[in-house]
Amino acid sequence: MKAKKGTLAPEEPAKEIGSVKRRKDSKKLYVDFYYFGHRIIRSTELNDTPANGQKVRDFLKRSMEKIEAGTFKFAEEFPGATSKEKAFFANLEGREYRPEPHNVKFGEYVKEWLKTTFPSFGSPTKRRDYKEAIKTRILPHFRNMTFHQITGQELFRFTESLKCSRGSNKGKPLSRARKINLLIPFRAIWNDACDHHRWVIKSPFDNLHKKLPKTVKKEHTVIRFNDWLLFLDNLEEHYRPIAELMILTGMIPSEMAGLRKEDITGDYINLNRSYVLGEEKQTMKTAFRKRQIFITKAIRSRLDVLQARTPSPYLVTTPRGTRLNSTDFAKVWKKAVTLSGIPEVTSYSARHSFAAWSLTIGINPLRLVSLMGHASKQMVFEVYGNYVEGLEEDAEQIFEYFGQDFITPQKTKNPALFSHSTGHSFGVTAITY
């Protein structure tokens, strides 16, 4: 058939044989024909020359013969078509479309995956984190690769290229833990694609964790008692009872933000929910984090301040009366640290300090396990049991700050006399279970 130049013909092409055309704004040749009643217009990516025109006409003739014989396979003749188009025509052809990994681009699959599978994937917070990882980290690198091209080596190159995009560490390599977290949604996409297309191929994630460099763990910072008092003097007044409640209980900001006034019953604080990034979670980080904390006199005095100053059902609030926000609180905390001139510590340091201070004044480790919400005594000693230079000098001040009822809850019977490790006795009694 003679090739025509110009726009696609205004008249409908013959259904039996189709036609070869060239668009007005392109030098490429196109085929135009009907298949199962659907008009197909496809570029051949060949320039309009006499030789190419003959090639395209021969292709169109063979295609028409295959269609008539019932042997035409759209996916094979147009490998550059989308998976959706290939699946659509495969269904009309009475066959199942099962593309090979080298025929499926990662970006195209992810586009459909985000519409179909992703909406039911985990909690809203998890979906937000995964979507950010996919769109800002994973897709920019792998969008135009096929699944066949995504190898273990390519994945390792990707992890090595990852850098911090903001904050004080901007431009520095991401930590091992952060890299592993970014690979979680990537692995989920890979596994779903293999299941959907019934691929049996080697996973690029196998043994990848062995190649990632180990991250040197930072020592947990423990606050010295006098530094703590200096910090409180420089902390905004509204936040002082909040910070004190943290170091007196081992609670973290997200747990405190989840507290309601109704969670204070009798002699106990009942921790059973948290508030993370604007989302209330009905479960804690682990089952052990759901715990009860005995209310000492020191804790009670701070609770009274928090309960009295807001009509909100939430116990810990901002000066505006809204629930405590971890991000905003971190900024207030950092400002106080800077003004006080003490060593750099974060709000999470209050939890580590609570544990170290408790061990310093002789709390029973098993009771500390319960107060911290850990699974075992081993965890307490591994994380908080390291010697802190000079902390034993603060023991008497810490004991007075916590109060004897912290070491010896009211219900304890026949407590043993407490004497801390240096041999000095404060007449403090210890609880045993």
Mean pLDDT: 83
C-alpha Rg (nearest Å): 33 Å
CATH topology of the largest domain: hpI Integrase, Chain A
What's the count of strands? 10
Note poorly predicted spans.
Answer: 1-16, 412-433
The secondary-structure class comes to: mainly alpha
Helix content: 40-55%
Spatial ordering of strands, largest sheet: 1-2-3
Shape estimate: elongated
Secondary-structure element string: EEEHHHHHHHHHHHEEEEEHHHHHHHEE
The CATH superfamily of the largest domain is identified as Intergrase catalytic core
Distance, first to last CA: 95 Å
Number of folding domains?
A: 3
Name the CATH class of the largest domain: Mainly Alpha
- Judging by the overall fold, what is the CATH architecture of the largest domain? Orthogonal Bundle
Determine the strand fraction and express it as a percent band. 5-15%
Number of helices: 18
Q: Main beta sheet, described?
A: 3 strands, antiparallel
Structure at a glance:
The chain is mainly α. About 45% of the residues lie in helices and about 10% in strands.
What does the model show?
GO terms for molecular function: DNA binding. Belongs to the 'phage' integrase family. The protein is mainly alpha-helical. The chain has three domains: 19-97, no CATH class; 106-211, DNA polymerase, domain 1; 225-358 and 373-384, Orthogonal Bundle (hpI Integrase, Chain A), CATH 1.10.443.10. The chain has 18 helices and ten strands. The chain has a three-stranded antiparallel sheet, covered by helices on one side. Strands 4-5-8 form a three-stranded antiparallel sheet. Strands 6-7 form a two-stranded antiparallel ribbon. The longest helix has 22 residues, at 176-197. The termini are far apart.
